[in-house]
Amino acid sequence: SRLGILIVRHLKRLERVILGYLEVSDGPEEEARLGILETLQCTIEHAWPRMPCRLPVLLKALLRLLWDVHTERGPTPEPVRAALLHRATQCLILLDRCSQGHVKVLLEGVHSSCEENRVRECLRKVQEST
Predict the structure, then answer these.
(1) 85, 66 in Cβ contact below 8 A?
(2) Are the C-beta atoms of 47 and 11 separated by less than 8 Å?
(3) Which tens digit of pLDDT belongs to each residue from 39-88?
(4) Of all helices (H) and strands (E), which one includes residue 102?
(5) What is the phi/psi pair of residue 71, to 5°?
(6) Which of 9, 15, 81, 122 is the most exposed place for a label (fewest CB within 10 A)?
(7) Selection from 66, 14, 72 nearest residue 43 by Cα
(8) pTM to 2 decimals?
(9) How many helices (H) and strands (E) does the chain have?
(10) What is the mean pLDDT of residues 7-22?
């Protein structure tokens, strides 16, 4: 937050860190993943002009996270899973806004072919966001 738009100087390195944290579960409380989703949200809010070019990589990572959280059968409590899904959905909504609706276009096929209710619900929220 303190860097504001100056975060764009560090986007390449920050993107690698964010992707690394999103890929790996860090235990039942998922503190690292929740924290990195908050970091991603803040980064999107401050560096939104540079986000459309990073959209393919971030979209793929967030969709993979949604799927992993839904399918993992570990000791993660339900409220933590819900928080992960909510924050990932918020990041997708922000990415959609800064890419002028491009995320919604890309997600159309995914939403119609997805049979998992929790993932569909997250995708529906992105589709219905304004």
Answers:
(1) yes
(2) yes
(3) 999 999 999 999 999 999 999 999 999 999 988 888 899 999 999 999 99
(4) helix 102-113
(5) -90, -20
(6) 9
(7) 14
(8) 0.92
(9) 6, 0
(10) 92
Place of tokens 């579960």: 25
Contact 42/75 with Cβ under 8 angstroms? no
In the numeric block, which tokens belong to residue 27? 């235990």
Contacts 24+ apart (CB under 8 A), 75-84: 75/28, 76/25, 76/28, 76/29, 76/30, 77/28, 80/28, 80/29, 80/30, 80/34, 83/30, 83/34, 84/30, 84/33, 84/34, 84/37
Q: CB neighbours (10 Å) of residue 37?
A: 24
Burial class (CB in 10 A: 0-12, 13-18, 19+), 50: middle
If you search the block for the tokens 């070019």, which residue do you land on?
53
How would residue 35 be classed by pLDDT, with cut points 50, 70 and 90? Answer: very high
| Phi-psi map region of 100: left, alpha, beta (phi>0 left; psi -120 to 50 alpha) | left
